[in-house]
Design goal:
Layout lengths: L4 H58 L4 H12 L16
Helix pairs in contact: 1-2
Length: 94
């Protein structure tokens, strides 16, 4: 039984429509997951950085005459080991 041109065209049209639908779903899912991951990372970094800044301010106000360098060193020394890593630089890069 030979293939008719109509069946062949319908099959190709269905395959293309199916492929386009899958591509749209894939891109939508990718964009949503990327946006959610970006939000989670931003929130986590802001929270952790805020906690480090708060700890550093607390250390500074305990002994303001010793300077910010000591406050940063003490805050990071007391910081519990987590997956978040922080490096504190002064304006001169030290």
């Amino acid at each position: 039984m030979p293939l008719s041109r109509l069946r062949l065209r319908l099959s190709i049209a269905f395959a293309l429509a199916f492929a386009v639908g899958l591509a749209v779903l894939h891109l939508t899912l990718f964009v949503l997951l990327r946006r959610d991951a970006d939000r989670q990372l931003t929130r986590r970094l802001q929270q952790s950085a805020g906690e480090v800044a708060h700890a550093m301010a607390r250390e500074f106000w305990e002994a303001p005459h010793e300077g910010l360098r000591r406050a940063a060193r003490e805050a990071l020394r007391e910081w519990p080991p987590t997956l978040d890593a922080f490096i504190i630089y002064d304006s001169a890069g030290g």
